[in-house]
Amino acid sequence: MKISTKGRYGLRAMVELTLKSVTDHVALKSIAESQNISEGYLEHVFSMLKKAGLVKSIKGPQGGYFLADKPSNIFVGAILRVLEGDLSIVDEKSDLSEDSMIEKCIKLNIWDQIDQCVSSVVDGITLEDLVSEYKKMKKIEDTMYYI
Q1: Domain residue extents for the chain
Q2: Which pLDDT does position 100 carry in this prediction?
Q3: Is beta strand 55-58 parallel, antiparallel or unpaired with respect to 64-67?
Q4: What is the third-level CATH fold of 5-143?
Q5: Which residues contact 83 (CB under 8 A, 6 or more apart)?
Q6: Closest by Cα among 16, 3, 10, 84 to 46
Q7: pTM for the complete prediction?
Q8: What is the arithmetic mean of pLDDT over 29-58?
Q9: Which end of the chain is more exposed for a tag (fewer CB within 10 A), N or C?
Q10: How far apart are CA 147 and CA 138, in angstroms?
Q11: In 3D, which of 77, 4, 76, 17 has the Cα closest to residue 46?
């Protein structure tokens, strides 16, 4: 499994939206500029996120996007599944014949366990967690002095 640009950019944009939308909606142009991502690309990403109910939008020249729920209720796994689809490392339909005990053994003992670990990580981190960690890192970076 490899997370595509859509997943990586979408997650970055959602963190940026969380940071900026504390009191109001945020224009995609603002997110695109601060994250150096094409606004057109973000429009596609955010249409998927909106369809999935993770964000809401206000139309018009003063419009923009905002989170559909509290950041503490939006998990990284939900965002990635919307943008990437299934997060399994092996396609479920891949060559698993009913006669192959070796394939079943590998699936149960390796692929399924890796999938569970990935799900455990992405379903255990919220946007609120990411924003909190970002702010800690930013504070450390802002207080460092370079000679």
Answers
A1: 5-143
A2: 84
A3: antiparallel
A4: Arc Repressor Mutant, subunit A (1.10.10)
A5: 4, 6, 7, 10, 11, 45, 48, 49
A6: 10
A7: 0.86
A8: 95
A9: C
A10: 19
A11: 17
